[in-house]
Please model this.
Amino acid sequence: MRFHDCSTAPSPRRVRIFMAEKGISLPTVQVDLKSGEHLEPAFRRLNPWCTVPVLELDDGTCISEAMAVCRFLEEIHPDPPLMGRDAREKGLVAMWEHRCEIDGFLAAAEALRNATPRMKGRALPGPEPYEQIPALAERGRKRVQGFFKALDQRLADSAFLAGDTYTVADITAQVAVDFAGWIKLTIPEALVHARRWHDSVSARPSAGA
Model:
């Protein structure tokens, strides 16, 4: 297997943290997003959606999307479990991971991609050009601020997002919070529960992946 990555991009970082938590090491191919390598025919043959990460299996099968890659790795490396240990926990992990992706990760992306000059014509990832909409940048910033509040409310009653155990939901949330720093938004000091959690997950060795 080979892992097609971009060391500076937030989405593949979710998989890198996931692999670090499980002790998985894979040959890695760096994809240069700045030069547009992901839009070239060679990469499109791996992933027609032109995004990273991509996990290329030994038989040539390619799996894109961070959570799809994590799901595959969870199946072949089940320990430690990061997607839940029983039906109840698996449901909670999936729920919180999805909410963190929509309300945090994608909100930060919306704000960044619709306001950054170098992303003109690239307001959405993928093969098609989309023009920026400034109003969406402002909306994205508001959504991120709401995400911080939702994290704090949840973490007032729970050590981690899905319960008492660190899971992939925490990985997505952590990367979303760090990604929000790109648009100069951080968890406010008043949100003590979210800040406690972020300090905790950031101290894990996997956070540097």
